[in-house]
Write a structure and sequence with these properties.
Chain lengths: ~70, ~475
């Protein structure tokens, strides 16, 4: 798929991702743990953010098919 | 198909050349997309697995209709975008929304065997009340254990500018105007405060990345070495960025954010102004308006007449953010907030100066039914030194009707602006209602004018000549 390599992804940026992922993994794990502890202690704050969670909800995918004109 | 091909190549959009998978063209004013055989395999897989459909339904990707299929090209027609807006015209939270959208799409793509091959901020635009991804051909097959090709692009297009905005001021978001392919990571790293180096997440994503990029730049001979990254690890990067960006917030308080609390308007005058505007807009049966200097959209929301779309722009990032927040919490779809400096509107940029259109080019094509300029003229004239004739010419160039508010010389705000001129105050003696009216009459015919009670302000509705 070399024809799709129309911009330089940066070699350094490709190699570094292993490190970035490891750091993110540790942070996600510890945050998750902290969240569970807070939840257990009943001190977790309600989410009043205007932005959703990262996951695309199944209900969003299935409904509103009128907006789509695919054949 | 031949005739079609001639049309497609001739009207190829001047911004559409980076990706060989296909290109955008205009056919009698309608934007269409031609897909090259290079991309047929991906396109068919995305289509048959309902990936496109799922993203369309979720409102994340602009929908499209397939018009024709041949062995040479597939032509699709996407839902048309009424007013393209660019990263350097977004407020902080709009920028955040675009970044989160891109990450959300990448995660969904990975889960479905695809991956975003680019993560340009120009692949996203604010449309019908939310950020939407508009580059249908940005998806490629996910290759097992391969890192995210667009990672660096994501950092330089989204994460870097957002961090600069947070730590170095919101105006940093304008850097994307100069760096059409993202703010250089080395520059982001050098500009961020030292404390960001102590945060392991920021250190790895920005500072270490900048170092790696520099190191490998030297011995890089154009041969791409294979590097491996598990899907789980890549998802950690995506989720980590998502969580971090979602939590990013600003501490700055706004100069204009609470503008309506400290203006020199009595409440009655405010309501009277709103009633006048509503009456005029209703009379004109306007479908589209642009409010130049529209703050957080307060006045546009006072219009009871149903508008199809309202572009509300302001120089103040916090006002645009407040408007954006209102749009999100009330799920409005007709309001389009963006950052705009009337003294320096976005220019044509990119290769041949044709990749991203200037504000003027876009607004002329959009041709709103009415332009609103409330409490703006004194700033243009006294802070920007724009003569009345030049502002009249500007306003008359893109819409038929202009609703403009003129604060007279005795208005407290005008006085304040005049006082800042010090010894040059006399040079602004021309600022009076007679000169305003005579200059504007060169470009407009007066339809009606109403003075607002108990204030030094007059409302005008003009029709361009």
């Amino acid at each position: 798929m070399t024809h799709l390599l129309y911009f330089d992804p940066g070699l350094g940026a490709m190699i570094i991702q292993a490190i970035v992922a490891a750091v993110a993994g540790v942070l996600l794990f510890s945050k998750n743990l902290l969240y569970k502890i807070k939840l257990f202690l009943g001190i977790s704050k309600p989410n009043d953010d205007v932005f959703d969670d990262i996951d695309v909800k199944d209900s969003d995918i299935e409904s509103k098919s009128n907006s789509d004109n695919q054949q | 198909m031949k005739a079609n091909q001639i049309v497609t190549t001739n009207n190829r959009h001047s911004s559409s050349f980076r990706d060989p998978s296909g290109f955008i063209f205009t056919d009698r004013g309608v934007i269409k997309r031609s897909i090259s055989p290079l991309y047929f395999e991906q396109y068919n897989a995305l289509k048959s697995s309902n990936f496109f459909k799922k993203l369309h339904n979720a409102g994340l990707l602009i929908s499209h209709e397939e018009l024709s299929v041949s062995s040479e090209e597939i032509i699709i027609q996407p839902e048309q975008i009424s007013f393209m807006n660019y990263p350097y015209e977004w407020s902080f939270n709009q920028y955040k929304e675009a970044a989160l959208l891109t990450l959300k799409i990448q995660k969904f793509a990975l889960e479905n065997g695809f991956s975003l091959k680019d993560a340009s901020a120009f692949n996203v635009t604010f449309h019908k009340g939310k950020m939407v991804f508009i580059d249908t051909l940005s998806f490629d097959f996910y290759k097992e254990n391969s890192p995210w090709r667009a990672y660096k692009q994501f950092i330089s297009h989204f994460f870097g500018p957002l961090l600069l905005a947070k730590y170095n001021g919101l105006e940093s978001l304008k850097l994307m105007n100069s760096f059409i392919d993202g703010v250089p990571i080395k520059m982001v790293s050098s500009m961020l405060p030292l404390k960001t180096k102590l945060n392991p997440f920021l250190y790895s994503n920005i500072h270490l990345l900048a170092k790696f990029e520099e190191k490998h730049n030297e011995d890089y001979k154009g041969v791409s070495k294979e590097s491996n990254l598990s899907k789980k690890a890549q998802l950690n990067i995506i989720k980590g960025l998502y969580d971090f960006i979602k939590k990013m917030s600003l501490k700055t308080s706004s100069e204009w954010g609470n503008y309506y609390d400290k203006t020199n308007y009595a409440n009655d005058a405010f309501d009277q102004k709103a009633t006048i505007i509503d009456g005029w807009i209703t009379q004109l049966e306007a479908k589209t308006v642009i409010d130049v200097g529209g703050n957080d959209g307060t006045f546009v929301r006072k219009i009871k007449h149903q508008l199809h779309e309202a572009l509300v722009c302001d120089i103040d990032y916090n006002a645009v953010d407040a408007n954006h927040n209102y749009v999100k919490t009330h799920k409005e779809t007709y309001m389009l907030p963006f950052v705009f400096d009337v003294l320096n509107p976005s220019a044509n940029i990119g290769f041949n100066n044709k990749e991203r259109d200037s504000f003027l080019k876009r607004i002329k094509a959009y041709a709103p039914d009415v332009t609103m300029a409330l409490a703006v003229i004194h700033h243009m004239t006294l802070s920007g030194n724009i003569p009345f004739e030049m502002s009249a010419e500007f306003f008359s160039s893109f819409s038929k009707h202009l609703i403009i508010e003129f604060p007279k010389r005795n208005d407290s705000w005008v006085q304040r602006l005049l006082n800042t001129k010090g010894e040059f105050k006399a040079h602004f003696d021309f600022y009076n209602i007679e000169n305003f009216e005579s200059s504007y009459s060169k470009y407009f015919t007066l339809v009606e004018k109403v003075a607002i009670d108990n204030s030094e302000r007059v409302m005008y509705i003009y029709k361009s000549l």
